[in-house]
Amino acid sequence: MATLSSQPRRRPPLSRQAIKIRRHRVRDLKDPLPHRAQEIEPPSHHLSPEERALLYEEALYTVLYRLGQPEPTHVGESSELLRYLQEAFRMEPEEHQRLLRQVQELEKPIFCLKATVKQAKGILGKDVSGFSDPYCLLGIEQGVGVPGGSPGLQRRQKAVVRHTIPEEQIHRTQVITQTLNPVWDETFILEFEDISNASFHLDMWDMDTVESVRQKLGELTDLHGLRRIFKEVRKDKGQDDFLGNVVLRLQDLRCREDQWYPLEPCTETYPDRGQCHLQFQFIHKRRATAASRSQPCYTVHLHLLQQLVSHEVTQHQAGSTSWDGLLSPQAATVLFLHSTQKDLSDFHRSMAQWLAYSRLYQSLEFPSSCLLYPITSIEYQWIQGRLKAEQLEELAASFSSLLAYGLSLIRRFRSVFPLSVPDSPARLQSLLRVLVQMCKMKAFGEVCPESGPLPRLVTEALRTGTTEWFHLKQQHHQPMVQGMLEAGKALLSLVQDIIGDLHQCQHTWNKIFHNVLKIDLFSMAFLELQWLVAKRVQDHIAVVSGAVTPEMGESLFQLYISLKELYQLAPVPSERDGVLALEGFQQWFQPAIPSWLQKTYSVALERVQRAVQMDELVPLGELTKHSTSAVDLSTCFAQISHTAQQLDWPDPEEAFMITVKFVEDTCRLALVYCSLIKARARELSAGQKDQGQAANRLCVVVNDMEQLRLVIGKLPTQLAWEALEQRVGAVLEQGQLQNTLHAQLQGALAGLGHEIRTGVRTLAEQLEVGIAKHIQKLVGIKESVPPEDGKGMGVGPEWARTRRAAAPPQAILPLMKFLEVKLCYMNTNLVQENFSSLLTLLWTHTLTVLAEVAASQRSCPLASSRLKIALQNLEICFYAEGCGLPPEALHTATFQALQRGLELQAASSRELIQKYFCSRIQQQAETTSEELGAVTVKASYRASEQKLHVELLSASSLLPLDSNGSSDPFVQLTLEPRHEFPELAPRETQKHKKDLHPLFDETFEFLVPAEPCQKDGACLLLTVLDHDTLGADDLEGEAFLPLRLVPGLTGTEEPGDVPQTRLPLTYPAPNGDPILQLLESRKGDREAQVFVRLRRQRAKQASQHAP
Questions:
Q1: Closest by alpha carbon to 286, among 101, 68, 97, 61?
Q2: What keywords were assigned to this record (predicted)?
Q3: How much is the pLDDT for 573?
């Protein structure tokens, strides 16, 4: 039978009324955390054997008397649920069967359908106004099943509830007046015996009251309303109108239903009568289990939930997987059935889930995110005063217990959430969010009003946990053997662990705590740990500072480096208060600095000695031409620089002295290495007759020294001299750093440079003998050999590609072959810097030898020609298309002088004569002074006649060469050189008596082709002479008119107006011309001797009358 749960606004005229359950909205509340949550012990979820037996009976009873169709995700077979319960409660088969029979013998519960009529929409309007006054009649028809198909279609009849269900079992809702979308939200408990032949019936009616026709006419709005009035007249007074019905078989319903159902008609007049929103739930009354009779249903459900969740977590742990918070279908089905049959509210289900999960979380491992759903659900449905006092105490205890447990996990987060487990950060973040959400709940604020703010509680837990972790680490690193060295190693390991932990806090944990709680974990942990470390380190140094052995010094250095790394992690001053305990920690280690510096030098020296002793002086590769010891030495120096960078002493003056020591030791090691590597070369070459191997080793030694020089040159950068200079600027005197560090470095570089030059000089001396020998052979060959198709000669791959502008004669090939082989060898075995030095030495020596040989072959044009060609090819060889010496290194003053000398020596006599006239023409062009006088001429060339036309106009300002203070001038005209114009005799002008400014005005014509006139050196020589009757004529001066500049010589047109040309007179060079000297040395050349004799005569005449 149904019982009332609330009183309606208007009691319907039925003998039995339904129990109405109304729903209420929750209100929001917010208060702080529980006080001293850390001291509350979490309640145990373990049950005694008797309690487990009663709970198992309750679970079996729930499965045996389940009602309704299963949910889509639930288990439908009861046998499967029973097997699951046996496993979850760990029941033996015999015990399970016994308890199952015992439960089957218990009295069945009273089956009830909890039906809630929520609302309707789109119903028919039966009143004149177009609306209705709807109410519902509902009940359960027992004993008559509705055939398959739609119940409404199979059985339509008017007043079905009144006709088929006894009046005392009919329930009625309130009447909602004048609406087509009524809202009732009324709940009724309907009992039934057998679900298989029971049907739910609901009729919806429009209540009619007795009204006069006048009243109805007043409500009339349209013709449709008028038809309703006529219908009302025919109907019995006070008879309600049928709006529709819903008929459902109970066995077709699920345990819980919430749907819209169509209102079925009894005729086809109005097939669409709207919809009705109904909620159904199958529940039990008077359950026969001991637990249901003795305990509140909420408590029983809580214990069942704890038991099943504990089993779920245990099963996952046995399979080496973590529980993800999702219940198995079997557990979800059992819990759903139990909560539904016991008619637990959503709020109490969330309460039970929270209490169960929060307790299990403290003893079993599963994600804390599983706690978020019950927290959210409780917060949403929380209503102050809804729980009883004991339930409030239980809820407060669960909040306080979880908070205390959570804070204990946070305090030990380093071990509870290790980063070695991939999901540890996510688990910690989930826990923090659960605690934050819990402390924000209105329920938490009401039941735990004295709790402090969560950020403060977490900060205290983190600070305490950090200190505890430090002491645990200190105990872990405690040495087995007590001693200063062992204690130092233990302290070093402790500091390194702290650095690693701070890095984890900075890069991982700090983000989590800051994002969730705005807590700066890293700064807090650093400030706590640095104070503990500083105290421990100071105590250790106080014990060992008196006797710093090398081993202890190494231990202290490693500790210093670790403390430096730790100090560099310090938060910026704006994020901390006061001075750090590690401030100025470097001064604690000052007594150990001498030991560190000596240790650095000793280790480096041992490495250098070992590297040289193991070096076979063989290049490492084709591109790497130094040996293994040079690489080891570079690594050794890099380690010294790294040690200096690690030290990074803060005091400027002491930092300067430390840097001076490092530079001094490095330079000393460099010079030691030079001595050792040379000794190693001598050791390997001792007793060997192969000079090539000795040369190879010498090349490697020189390359190693060059590599060392490059490494030493990087010291200012590696030791940060520029930064040091800025730091010590206010401490040291101006220039002290320059005078100290740079002087040390320059001294070392100078020593290395000397060693390198000595080695290169030795290599060069081995080649110089061969070069001199081949040059001597070059000039000793009797006859000239015609040039052959010469090959390009060079040194190495790039030198081998070098090609000569002209193929060298056969005579110089031995010299070029010698250089090709030797220089190729040297280029292969020497680095570029040393090879360039070698080339410079060889080039200087070669020029010297060539100059000496050229001086001895002045009178031999053939030998000089060979030397000239040799010089040209040597220049190309040593340049090697830009891969050898640069032009500025090749074209020295010695080279240029030798080049000019050989150019002359190799020329023929006629070529020399031609060069002589070229030089005199150049002298004529450069002369502007007329102190010897000048001549004026007009010259032109008529190409049609092949005649050179010369008009000698005058002379002026001549020197008085006679005793009477005057002269008797005349001019001799010759075309030079004579070998170009052999058929043309000299011409002369008339002689003018006693005239220093004679006006000649004479014309001369020379029949001469244009070709010889256009050659270099071709000129018209105007020799002005003073006629003497008794002796030889005296020389007034000479003028040279270059023929190539004569108008008409280069064109086909005849010249027009010919300009006058004024030529200052000149004298031959008083000190002798080198060309004349060469010509004079050629005794067997008659033409040369004649020319020289005439030129000497002119020079002698000039010397007698020089102004």
A1: 61
A2: Calcium, Cytoplasm, Endosome, Exocytosis, Lysosome, Membrane, Metal-binding, Phosphoprotein, Repeat
A3: 77
